[in-house]
Amino acid sequence: MKKQFWNWVRNEDGTRTLTLNGTIAEESWFEDDVTPRMFRDELNAGAGDVVIWINSPGGDCVAASQIYTMLMDYKGHITVKIDGIAASAASVIAMAGTEVLMAPTSLLMIHNPLTVAIGDSDEMQKAIAMLDEVKESIINAYELKTGMSRAKLAHLMDAETWMNANKAIELGFADGVLEDEKKQAKHDDAVFSFSRRAVTNSLLNKVQRKQASKPPAMEEALVAQATESRYPVEPLYQRLSLISH
Question: In this prediction, what percent of the chain has a pLDDT beyond 70?
Answer without folding.
Answer: 73
